[in-house]
Amino acid sequence: MCGIVGYIGANGAVKEVLLNGLSKLEYRGYDSAGLVCVENNRVFYERSLGRVSNLESAVVKSKVLKLIDNKASFGIAHTRWATHGKPSKENAHPHKAGDIYLVHNGIVENYKELKEALLTVDGSIEFTSQTDSEVLVHLISSKLDSNPRRSMVEAVQSSLNLVKGTYAIVVLNIVSGEMVCACNGSPLVLGIADDEGLLVASDTVALIGYAKHYLRLADGDVVSLSPKEYVFVSGTDKEVLELEESGQTSSLGGVFGHYMLKEIYEQGEVVDRVVNNKGQIYDILPKILKAKRLIIVGCGTSYNVGLVAEYLIERLSQISVEVEVASEFRYRDMPMSEGDVAIVLSQSGETVDTLEAVKLCKERGVLTVGIVNVEGSAIANACDAVIYNKAGREVSVASTKAFTSQLAVLSMLAIMLGECRSSLTTIEATNLMSELSNLPAVLSQELDRMSKQMEDLAKKYGSIENIICLGRGVQSAIALEGALKIKEVSYINAQAYPSGEIKHGPLALVDPNTLCIILAPKDELYTKSLSVIEEVKARGGIVIAITTPNGKEVIQSSDGVVIVPSVMDELLPFMTILPMQFFAYHLALLRGCDVDKPRNLAKSVTVE
Ligand code: M6R
């Protein structure tokens, strides 16, 4: 979602620092961008709709807003993902009130009351956007107007005291050069520039190239910034951390046309990395072993991984598992006790709903174990213990390799729990572990073929507007994840159901214009899947089946088939997800969709 970059210091090329930072934040998803900066005594202020490259062009052509005496270089920039008010130049940040400019991530929930109160005191205040954020800059400005002896940092603090909601803000006075940042519920990091100066950003990736050290701000922090120092006006000073650059960036490297395809192809590597880092799972195992119940929480793809893990953990270790959508979790009032352990899944480590779920679990005395991809992220920091799933930076909004790496962690955990609790023999556990270790080799041989087959099927059925994905047992979770991928990137209406549910309603949708993708590997539920294929065919529906080489009956009765390698039943989800991901990718490509940055979606969902 929204991205923030700010800079104050000695680097004269502020526009370049800010625009580079924004480009690195593009992966988060946004619809407009803007900046204000002082460079060589000249002030530039530009906002534009669409990509950062549009802002770049606008900045190149932009006229100097005014000339000022301040010798320093400073500025703030933002990518906006619309919440309040449509994507437009007027709604893009920074917002301004006189010489004060502000960028904001999060949501000001009481913005209407604050706006009314401001207008009651001063009816001449002109609001120029539909955003909740603009009220903040007017609030700060009015605090300064009402008491000229007040510093900007004081004005920011007393304004924030009135705000209900979440925020990461950077506020700038373009004339005095005062810069203040603050956060509560939205992430913010402070980078110590290699040359003199400071950077502030919503993600460490924006600091790369300019800073080697950084601090992560905590909720409630208010920090005043100058080229030479930062002062915590609220909150306590934080440990300075070294910026880990490896794994933070990713490039297409000329081989792949899109990150989504590249990341699908990286899935063998990510399993390998998880298998080779089993130490971090062993370290946490004793704590999880004590659990009477595991509560798995996540959103989107992370939630779907949880559903797959529910089958695995219950089957292999006989520990009872509840999987919860994080966005509903805090409204459930679910009974929890000390015998529970929460496993929190998040690729980005920033998803606000998931972060709130962590806080709730901790309030209730439940141990939280994060499985997180981004090191040092808010969720990783908030959990009592963390396992990193080491997928490397995932750029495509549609999550693929993060799914597989989270699943690899959870599969290993399920096997280890099973062995420790004696619901698996050592031989069974060893066999499963060794098959898991062998998956990267299997995958490397199969990906090209699967991609080609799914491309052909996408060409054949790409004009269809309704897809139903069906699976039985653990494959019902793969059906859900496959349908999520298809709708996210190709915008085709794809639904998913456990196969057994089709007779209870969805069968009414099936006609010759409906494509059913049926996950039917030759596992213990194979014959049930066969019956579903027959039921769909009997109503004229089109069937693409995903099965294993021994699924002869499925192969014979389907309109299209993709064969995935036979592996142990427990590990089949690693195989069956692949054709689903490839199908979504090729459908999106054929339909001319923006594969890596699907419309309306963001990579990091930092608002509720
Ligand atoms: O970063 P997280 O794993 O917490 O993100 C959760 C979801 O927002 C995410 O999985 C989303 O559903 C993806 N776009 C799915 O491809």
3D architecture notes:
Helix content is 38%, strand content 24%. It has 608 residues and is α/β, with parallel strands linked by helices. The protein has a 9-stranded antiparallel sheet. Strands 6-7-8-9-13-14 form a 6-stranded antiparallel sheet. It has a 5-stranded parallel sheet with strand order 17-16-18-19-20, sandwiched between helices. α17 links the parallel β24 and β25 (560-563). The model has no long low-confidence stretch (mean pLDDT 94). The structure holds 5-amino-5-deoxy-1-O-phosphono-D-mannitol. 5-amino-5-deoxy-1-O-phosphono-D-mannitol binds next to α9 and α15.
| Rounded mean pLDDT score | 94
Count helical runs.
Answer: 18
Residues in helices, as a percent range: 25-40%
Globular, elongated, flat, extended or rod-shaped: what is the shape? globular
Structural class: alpha/beta
Strand order of the largest sheet: 4-3-2-5-1-11-10-12-15
Distance between the termini: 11 Å
Attached small molecules: 5-amino-5-deoxy-1-O-phosphono-D-mannitol
**Do you know the CATH architecture of the largest domain?**
4-Layer Sandwich
Radius of gyration: 26 Å
CATH topology of the largest domain: Glutamine Phosphoribosylpyrophosphate, subunit 1, domain 1
Count of all domains: 3
Enumerate the spans where pLDDT stays under 50 for 5 or more consecutive residues.
none
- Annotated CATH homologous superfamily of the largest domain: Aminohydrolase, N-terminal nucleophile (Ntn) domain
